[in-house]
Amino acid sequence: MKKRLFAIGITVCMVFLLAFASGCGKGSEKVVNVYNWGEYIDESVLKLFEKRTGIHVNYNTFETNESMYAALKNGGSNYDVIFPSDYMISRMIAENMLQPIDYQNIPNASKINLKDFNVQSALSYDPDGAYSVPYAWGTVGIIYNTKTVKNPVTSWGGLFDASNKGQILMFNNARDGIGIALKYLGYSLNTINKEEIKKATDLLIDQKQKGLVQAYVMDQIFEKMIGGEAAIGPYYAGDALTMIQENPDLAFCYPKEGTNLFVDAMCIPKNADNKENAGAFINFMCDPEIMVMNAKATGYAVPSRAAYELLDPEEQNSKLIYPDASVLKNCEIYKNLPQDVNAFYDSEWSRLTMAKSGS
């Protein structure tokens, strides 16, 4: 669930915007419109794909699953390949927003198998792989500054510790934000018990009103923590490796209460104009050498043993990228929840955002 803002060049942005403004790609066999998380690809891969296939890539990025969903649901944007996360894939399948994958056009998909990494349970969002092809997977934990955080960090409780007042960052979306409080209170990330969700939101409101939270952010966590602008926050293990390399004062931990395991996958939207080109793009991304290029650029785990074997030993042995069984058994994957529960999460998040901050 990669969230860092992707620094697309001005030329690429303009090409993309002009393409969509003019309806570029409709009926064309030379264009593929791609919608991915920010900073979630080796940029040179796009040019390499164009060189090998003659298919031009119009590339754009999103910051959250929800913003991506809204862009497609509202019908204002046509994409051929998207990169949603597990629970959002399940939701989009249920709402008939995705096309079935034609694996005859994606032979490289045979090289992907999450069972090789003991995370096959994460595939519950699309058990038969009918609508999605895994792209990357990872986990969430706590990134903190060892010079400024006074108490040991072993729990989500570090984000509610008064000694870190004004230096705490929190995720800025309902499922991730409320999910942290749910895990800290001993509840499931996928609870449908509205009283538990309310208690988690009450905890977040108390945290906010006590002035503990510096900001609710997503992408900015990366820059703020590296730059020493904040002391502690949740973030993605794949990014943490890069962050620690850039700022040796930083450290990472998996909370004892458990955390989120996620899978991001490639899908073809129902209204895609260039399905064959989408298949070619997905197939290219499943090539082990291309997967390694992307893994080295993003820091996230590959879903392919063939790609894993091409990684450097240091990367293969990284417990941040490939956590051991003791961490994985304590992880949950986000699941798509009933519509009324999703609406309740949204209303509780609104209640949090409307609450006044303390000083």
Task: Please outline the helices and strands.
Blueprint: H1 10-22, E1 31-37, H2 43-53, E2 56-62, H3 65-73, E3 81-82, H4 86-94, E4 133-145, E5 168-171, H5 174-184, H6 194-209, E6 213-217, H7 220-226, E7 232-236, H8 237-246, E8 250-253, E9 259-266, H9 275-285, H10 288-298, H11 305-308, H12 313-316, H13 325-328, E10 331-332, H14 339-354
Parallel strand pairs: 1-2, 1-3, 5-6, 9-10
Antiparallel strand pairs: 4-7, 4-8, 4-9
Helix pairs in contact: 5-6, 5-14, 6-14
General description of the model:
This protein is α/β, with parallel strands linked by helices and 359 residues long. It folds into 2 domains: 10-137 and 261-322, Periplasmic binding protein-like II (D-Maltodextrin-Binding Protein, domain 2, 3-Layer(aba) Sandwich), CATH 3.40.190; 139-260 and 332-354, 3-Layer(aba) Sandwich (D-Maltodextrin-Binding Protein, domain 2), CATH 3.40.190. It is 38% helix and 16% strand. It is built from 14 helices and 10 strands. Strands 4, 7, 8, 9 and 10 form a 5-stranded mixed β-sheet that branches. β1, α2 and β2 (56-62) form a beta-alpha-beta unit. The protein is globular, with a radius of gyration of 20 Å.
List the main descriptive attributes of the protein structure presented here.
359 residues; alpha/beta; D-Maltodextrin-Binding Protein, domain 2; 2 domains; 5-stranded mixed β-sheet; 3-stranded parallel β-sheet; 38% helix; globular; disordered N terminus
